[in-house]
Amino acid sequence: MDIVPLLKKMGNVDVLVSGTQGDLKLPFKVKYQLHGFGFVFGKSGGVDLWKSFLKSRFRKFIGEINALPVEEYDLVINDFEPVSAWACYLKNKPCIGLSHQAAVLHEKAPLPADTDMIGRLILKHYAPVTAQYGFHFKSFGPKIFTPVIRQQVRDQKIENHGHYTVYLPAYDDKRLIKRLTEFKNIEWDVFSKHNKKIFRYKNVSIQPINNEGFIKSMAQSAGVLCGAGFETPAEALYMQKKLLVIPMKTQYEQQLNAAALKQMGVPVIKSLKEKHYEVIQDWIDNGQPIKVNFPDNTQQVLDLVFKEVGVAELVLG
């Protein structure tokens, strides 16, 4: 949402989006809206591999790869998107990876205690690229940068209204309510992938995902409880909110993110089960924000990419 407007100032840009799990409305025209090859969130803390397989529609995926005219473009920039990546690979077209996934696979990136070899294999081959520039919670290499924080987040007034913002898309509402109501004196503001209506049960409010509402809720929260993705934890850290993460099961990228966050001092739990209540309560009572420095250097990153891939004169001249 922040990178595309900058790219539009540097050249003519067509946007491609693929997948079935996206929730945000993009504030610009999307030329290619593809089915792609994505993963479906389950309801008990992980990815639903069976539903992911049923929704994959592999023949359609291959058709989208073959039909995508990547050869017509001077530059293809890819954020871990498989259709354009494989189209470039099969047509021998350079493809520039600009993604978080490029960073988690870096040799200096923190690793979890248990290595998921299948998960790592998927990460390496899901969207092949010819050059990589990555974003992570820390910069630990010349082509690894701190997160892109949306201007909408940077512009927020940071307050503490006492509630806790929750985004755990791999849990259904019933499970979240059952667990969170155990913490009786806490107001939980839950954003749900599984419900289209706003409702409240005891001390838990549930509402469908809404970009503006979610950002405002985080900005006014006492803390953020979420999965170990990248954007939401990064934005919570930037807002100086105390953070607790639960990595999705069967999602190796989130295990890698959790390892990096844990190294920074962010508490990590495996699930919302009762055996982890003590950690959650301690986080509520004693948790502290982690200090980070996420400068607004997105334009400098793009300038570096264009310079190194040798397209600056072509695009700008």
Descriptive account of the structure:
- With 317 residues, the chain is an alpha/beta fold.
- The protein contains 14 helices and 12 strands.
- The strands form 3 sheets. Strands 9-10-8-7-11-12 form a 6-stranded mixed sheet, with helices on both faces. Strands 3-4-5-6 form a 4-stranded parallel sheet.
- The longest helix has 13 residues, at 252-264.
- The protein is globular.
- The chain starts with a helix and ends with a helix.
Task: Supply the key terms.
single chain; disordered C terminus
Q: What's the gist of this structure?
A:
The chain has 317 residues and is α/β, with parallel strands linked by helices. 36% of the residues lie in helices and 15% in strands.
Q: Which regions are unreliable across 5 or more consecutive residues at pLDDT < 50?
A: 313-317
H-E order:
HEEHHEHEHHEEHEHEEEHEHEHHHH
Number of separate helices: 14
Q: What is the general shape?
A: globular
How many strands, what sense, and barrel or not for the largest sheet? 6 strands, mixed
Structural class: alpha/beta
- Provide the helix percentage: 25-40%
How many individual β-strands?
Answer: 12
Beta percentage is 5-15%
Provide mean pLDDT, rounded.
90
Looking across the biggest beta sheet, what order are the strands in? 9-10-8-7-11-12
Question: What is this structure's SSE topology?
Answer:
Layout: H1 3-8, E1 16-18, E2 32-34, H2 49-56, H3 58-67, E3 77-78, H4 82-90, E4 96-99, H5 101-104, H6 117-125, E5 131-135, E6 144-145, H7 151-154, E7 164-167, H8 173-180, E8 188-192, E9 199-201, E10 204-208, H9 211-219, E11 223-227, H10 231-238, E12 242-246, H11 252-264, H12 277-286, H13 298-309, H14 312-316
Parallel strand pairs: 1-2, 3-4, 4-5, 5-6, 7-8, 7-11, 8-10, 11-12
Antiparallel strand pairs: 9-10
Helix pairs in contact: 3-4
